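Morning run. Coffee first, then this:
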Amino acid sequence: MIVRLILVALIVVGAARVAFADVAGELGVPLPKKSTSLAPYAWHSSDNFKDTLKFYAKRFKHVAYTVHKVMANEKIRVVYLESNDPSTAWEGLNISEKKRHVRVFILARKK
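And here it is:
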């Protein structure tokens, strides 16, 4: 909840401008501009961790989701975005940063 409030606050004050994705992504999930595929449902974000979170806060402005802060220390940061909309093809997104490399893992919804 706190992470979501921080994300909203950053967008409201205009801390950074986030461009819309030019990468289609998978399962209907948009991806930051110039993201590259690592494996099925795994992507390397071209943006840093903070900007990647802001990208999703802006893109999912009208999507029902919950933010879970999974881990944050000096070596790794992980946030999980859980889709609250059963009509989406994705169940959640794991966004992680390790050694300045940001990864987005798309979790498919079980049928």
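Confidence is low (pLDDT under 50) at residues 5-22. Good start to the day.
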